[in-house]
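Hey team,

Sharing the DUF4177 domain-containing protein run so nobody has to redo it. Sequence (122 residues) first:
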Amino acid sequence: MDEKFAFDTQAFYNLSQMSAESSSEFGKIERQKWEYWTGFIGANAEGAEIKKYLKEQWPNWNPSKYSPESMIPGLNKFGEEGWELVHMQPIAGVGKNMDVFFQTDIGSFSAWYFCVFKRPKL
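Structure output:
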């Protein structure tokens, strides 16, 4: 095993002990708690509000119908509510039961994304 990447269990144990001791010495340290939201977001630049937003941001650009930039206003709304995007993955499609469609051949296009957001739990 490469020694640069060897895990030093004794050092980890010592750090754990120091952390436990400092917690008891200075009172209980609260850990941050999170809440999560998962869902599908589609890119579509056809709506009037989205077209207006894109024109304001990039006046000399003519975006394609499924431009990813069309998702920015929706993502900003999540951000205004305290949600942070922590994962976004393109998917081939969403089924009628909200299941994810996987395409195995190469060369597929998609305008749908599976997203995970988190924010501090109050």
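Strands lie at 34-42, 84-91, 93-94, 100-101, 112-120.

Ping me if you want the raw files.
A.
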